[in-house]
Task: inverse folding
């Protein structure tokens, strides 16, 4: 499968200004990814590049601004750099070997360890250091001469092989020859000329399992069910209400969004979040968070449909805030509930960092599909494929 950005391991380079992060990124990728200069603060915003690096394979390389950048603008850059930690699978801490560990470097190491992020400590500019310590914990490299760059790539490759375990959205739940119906509405919210990423990935995994996929629109499902007895029906969550009574109770039913909740998050945590919908009170604040940055239409699911359905279900006067893409509030204490999209455009690390933040702050969180299933009274049925009830 051609891995999308959200499925590629994210390798981020951190460190103080002028430690040579950008030069090392360019050396590792063998491309000019980042602008290099002797002036401090040349890298102002994170630079991301999806690419394939031998022997690592498909990855996302991220170059970040110096963690010790000064001034008001520097503070914003540092804040942005720390946000990159939320989606980092492997962190590379780059240290100027002529200066050694700085206080900022030690703070970064604490951040890595507190977040359980695998990391590699690299002393750059080794060509300027007369004596190098013999220490197996660290790598000595020179972005200028290329010394140690291959060793760094090999070590990153080792970390990837240890930490990146193969996961499936649905393949491991299927048997060869089974029939799966995919209910895919083609309406004003469907992207023209294509189907959305979770639908693409589920379809591919069905084929990889040597099972049979049949795609239809909601209005076609009744005739389809009369002709074919599927083992499983997977639907767009928005039409749960239209099809829940069409699919016989002895046939498994779930949604693309619920599959994503299990694939990229903590299903049990989000089931608990769904149950909190009934406990909402007048005046409660709810955060609706969308992982992608698509153009919001007049009948957008996040800003229009979800709030409408929640208000109708609870009968309460509620307040809603909305975020998109990489935006996620640093302070979520005011929210009684967070309703998140399936996270298909976020990598697993970033999705799990948001779930962890909610858990630490004791804020219930649920994704779109699970919230919709709960409000339609079929959450237990929709999660049955994962043996959660």
Result:
């Amino acid at each position: 499968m051609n891995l999308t950005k959200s499925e590629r391991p994210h390798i981020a380079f951190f460190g103080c200004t002028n430690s040579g992060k950008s030069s090392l990124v360019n050396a590792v990728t063998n491309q000019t990814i980042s602008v290099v200069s002797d002036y401090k603060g040349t890298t102002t915003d994170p630079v991301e590049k999806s690419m394939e690096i031998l022997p690592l394979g498909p990855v996302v390389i991220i170059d970040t601004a110096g963690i010790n950048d000064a001034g008001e603008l520097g503070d914003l850059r540092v804040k942005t750099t720390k946000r990159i930690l939320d989606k980092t699978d492997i962190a590379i801490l780059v240290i100027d070997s002529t200066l050694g560990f700085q206080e900022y470097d030690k703070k970064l190491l604490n951040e890595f360890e507190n977040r359980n992020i695998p990391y590699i400590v690299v002393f750059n500019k080794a060509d300027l250091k007369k004596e190098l310590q013999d220490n197996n914990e660290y790598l000595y490299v020179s972005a200028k001469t290329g010394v140690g760059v291959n060793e760094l790539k090999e070590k990153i490759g080792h970390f990837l092989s240890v930490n990146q375990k193969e996961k499936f959205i649905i393949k491991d739940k299927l048997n060869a020859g089974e029939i799966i119906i995919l209910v895919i509405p083609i309406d004003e919210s469907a992207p023209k000329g294509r189907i959305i990423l979770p639908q693409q990935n589920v379809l591919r995994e069905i084929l990889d399992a040597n099972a049979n996929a049949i795609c239809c629109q909601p209005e076609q499902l009744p005739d389809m069910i009369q002709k074919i007895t599927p083992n499983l029906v997977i639907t767009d969550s928005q039409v749960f209400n239209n099809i829940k009574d069409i699919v016989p109770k002895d046939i498994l039913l779930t949604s693309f969004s619920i599959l994503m909740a299990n694939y990229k998050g903590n299903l049990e945590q989000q089931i608990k979040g769904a149950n909190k919908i009934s406990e909402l009170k007048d005046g409660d604040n709810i955060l609706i968070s969308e992982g992608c940055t698509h153009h919001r239409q007049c009948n957008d699911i996040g800003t229009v449909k979800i709030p409408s359905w929640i208000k109708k279900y609870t009968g309460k006067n509620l307040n809603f805030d909305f975020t998109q893409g990489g935006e996620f509030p640093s302070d979520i204490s005011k929210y009684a509930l967070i309703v998140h999209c399936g996270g298909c455009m976020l990598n697993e690390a970033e999705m799990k960092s948001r779930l962890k933040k909610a858990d630490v702050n004791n804020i219930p969180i649920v994704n779109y599909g699970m919230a919709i299933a709960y409000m339609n009274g079929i959450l237990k049925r929709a999660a049955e494929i994962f043996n959660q009830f």
Remarks:
- The longest strand covers residues 47-53.
- The first helix runs from residue 21 to 29.
- The CA atoms of residues 292 and 325 lie 5 Å apart.
- DSSP finds 13 helices and 14 strands in the chain.
